Each structure stands twice: as C-alpha cells, then as structure tokens.
From TrEMBL:
Residues 122-144 have a biased composition (Acidic residues). It is a multi-pass membrane protein. It comes from Mycobacterium celatum. One of its GO terms (cellular component) is plasma membrane. This is Cation:proton antiporter. It is found in: Cell membrane.
Amino acid sequence: MTVYLIPLLAIGALVSCGVYLLLERTLTRMLLGLLLIGNAVNLLIIAVSGAPGNPPVHGRGSPGKPTADPLAQAMVLTAIVITMGVAAFVLALAYRSYRLTAAEAVGKDPEDTRVAQLSPEEAADVDADPEEPYPDTDEPDELDALPGHRGSR
C-alpha cells in the first residue's frame, strides 16, 4: 500500500488548527475548530480506506481494477451528518449565549472561581455537607428567561 504524504500533512494541519481554535474562548471559533477536526477525520477515513478503484456497483467500472470499499464512503457520509448536527447545536448555543449576555466570549464561571480559591479543608467540608447550599425556589433565576421577559415562561 502506498502512503501519500501530502494528504497526511493536510490532515495534521487541519487537526492542529482545529485544536487551537477549540481552545479559544469564543463560541464561533470553537465551532470552526469542531468543523476543521470533523473534516480532518473524514479525510483520514478516506486516506486509510485504500486505493481508489471501481465504484461499488455491480457491472460498473473497468476490468483489472479492484472495487472500492463502500464502508469508508458510508462512514464519511455518516460523519458529515453528525458534524452538521453538532454544528447546529453549537450555533444554537452561541445564539442563546449572545441573546443572554450580548457577548460571544465564554466568561469564567464564578462558581468555579469560588471553588478554586477554597483550601483543601474547606473543599472537603463543602463536599461532606449533605444540605443543599443553594435551595431551589420558585423565583425565576438569572438565566430562566431572556432579558426584558422576566415574568414570562
């Protein structure tokens, strides 16, 4: 089997750019990173599926060439559909985040910051406390509704 270096370098570049974009704090860059990694995986599946050959349809193609593997093509089509579903979900998250905060960047979570500043003894006490520190009330929380629509659900 012949391994071509250029597609493998392109796959490596796509994965590295995708990982870099996933580490950013803005949702559109995270989305672009997911799309780049999804395309890199599709290229990898096609690259390792073997040499090109006749189409996997009986009676088509030229004699002397092997038949192409249809499994790789089916896997890539499935991966494309899954990637588009994940992209739609991340776009919905970005839209919702923008409508709530009017900013695209994901900020630091105040609760994570508070827990990170606790000493190990305080963290053990918090974990051992069976009572719920933040009781649930029927009052609307900050993120329950869009700004300007506090009372509606």
